[in-house]
Write a structure and sequence with these properties.
The protein is mainly α. It has 3 domains: 105 residues, DNA polymerase, domain 1 (Orthogonal Bundle), CATH 1.10.150; 96 residues, DNA polymerase, domain 1 (Orthogonal Bundle), CATH 1.10.150; 172 residues, hpI Integrase, Chain A (Orthogonal Bundle). Helix content is 56%, strand content 3%. Strands 1-2-3 form a 3-stranded antiparallel sheet. Helix 7 runs antiparallel to helix 8, helix 12 runs antiparallel to helix 14 and helix 12 crosses helix 16.
């Protein structure tokens, strides 16, 4: 297949004489079977050859390939790997990961072990903590991923050339990190504190830090209902929908369907990516919503939502064996596996529509719908059932947005109107 992909005889000779000469043809066929474009196959096969030469230069065996090795390969300078690509890192990461998946499926390697090359302290402690929360504490995948985001930031702030001197870490160091983060990102500070306290307890249990240091994290106060829930006004919502609908490409139609589900049915980002073809009851006009905790609720399939889904499913969704409704549009075609994907879609559309918001753009559409329901006269119980709230107190935050009802109980301003 290599001779069909490349015209340059020098390039063909290089591939057929390289360290991975026995794999390049099979690797190319592997990519073609997963419907990668010819251009991408050429890029990844070329990267595969460079990867093999880089491994040989660094005395790394094939069975030692890991995600960390691929990362180090991508971080190598273009001169070090004899590449002239401008987007070297992106091509190296994509090609290296695709080749590793091929090796796994071919049985050439058993697992992507991360023990092949020595790691810096940030990676080592982050990996050990992730394994601890998984095997010992039994935290869910989403919680572990969220904790790791803040833990890696903390480790990166302590590291110098990849090395952490725990002897100089004290209450002042920890408190300053939390304070600086709270100043820059006040809304996420409670999440940071929770993750960091868990990590420090892990370090104390491992003997890395002295006992009691986990108590050095400042307590952050969270005042319930202290602020109004942010939402879009009708003009902003209309602009967002118009901007979303204007993109008639396959990806644009998919993104518009995602926006409609978020705005008209108030779904969470995670609920969107969990939707499967069998969750739509077309005959009854019902959409069944799954949650990560195994619970399910039924929502009416509005005409606008149904039309968007039909258009996407019939005309624009890639052909795939997967049952999830929303699929990535780059080969290999797979379900969206992270709830951040819909969030990324909404963030880009907000920017195009000229809507400025700093936090929770995907969830902002959920807030908008909930406030619309309350203001239109829906009861808290009905709104809670529709939105999938477990507690009425959660729905209660939108009572502050029911201006018509609040105006009836508002007391006169002291001293009269001004």
């Amino acid at each position: 297949m290599i001779r069909q992909l490349f015209v340059c005889q020098k390039m063909i000779a290089r591939l057929e004489s390289g360290p991975f000469a026995a794999h390049v043809n099979l690797f190319a066929e592997h990519l073609a079977s997963r419907r990668y474009t010819i251009k991408t196959i050429r890029t990844y096969v070329s990267v595969c050859d460079l990867f093999g030469r880089w491994l040989a230069k660094n005395n790394i065996q094939l069975r030692a390939i890991s995600s960390r090795v691929i990362e180090q390969f991508a971080n190598a300078s273009a001169d070090d790997v004899s590449s002239r690509r401008k987007n070297w890192r992106g091509a190296a990461l994509g090609g290296g990961r695709a080749f590793a998946r091929y090796l796994l499926e071919a049985g050439e390697i058993e697992t992507l072990s991360d023990c092949a090359m020595p790691a810096d302290d940030v990676s080592r402690y982050a990996t050990a903590y992730d394994q601890y929360t998984d095997k010992v504490q039994g935290l869910g995948k989403q919680s572990r991923e969220t904790y790791l985001v803040y833990v890696k930031r903390f480790l990166a702030a302590l590291a110098s050339d990849g090395i952490i001197n725990w002897a100089v870490v004290n209450a002042h160091t920890i408190g300053k990190f939390v304070t600086d983060h709270a100043t820059a990102h006040p809304r996420t500070c409670p999440h940071l504190v929770t993750a960091l306290r868990s990590f420090l307890r892990f370090l104390v249990a491992q003997g890395t830090l002295p006992a009691g240091l986990e108590a050095a994290i400042p307590i952050t106060k969270r005042f319930i209902h202290a602020t109004l829930p942010d939402r879009l006004n009708q003009d902003e919502l209309n602009r967002l929908l118009i901007q979303s609908k204007s993109d008639t490409t396959s990806i644009g139609v998919r993104n518009f369907a995602i926006i409609i589900l978020l705005a008209r049915l108030g779904l969470r980002a995670k609920e969107v990516i969990l939707l499967r073809l069998e969750d739509v009851d077309w005959a009854r006009g019902v959409l069944y919503i799954r949650s990560s905790k195994g619970k399910e609720r039924a929502l009416p399939l509005r005409k606008e939502v149904a039309e968007c889904l039909v258009t996407y499913l019939k005309e624009h969704r890639p052909k795939t064996r997967h049952r999830e409704i929303f699929i990535t549009h780059n080969a290999p075609y797979r379900p969206m596996v992270r709830f951040a994907v819909p969030c990324h879609v909404v963030r880009k559309l907000f920017a195009k529509a000229g809507i400025e918001r700093h936090f929770g753009k995907a969830h902002l559409l959920r807030h908008t719908l909930a406030s619309q329901l309350i203001n239109s006269g829906a009861t808290f119980k009905d709104t809670a059932d529709f939105m999938g709230h477990r507690f009425l107190q959660t729905t209660g935050i939108y009572a502050k947005l029911d201006l018509n009802s609040l105006s009836q109980i508002a007391l006169p301003w002291p001293g009269g109107a001004k």
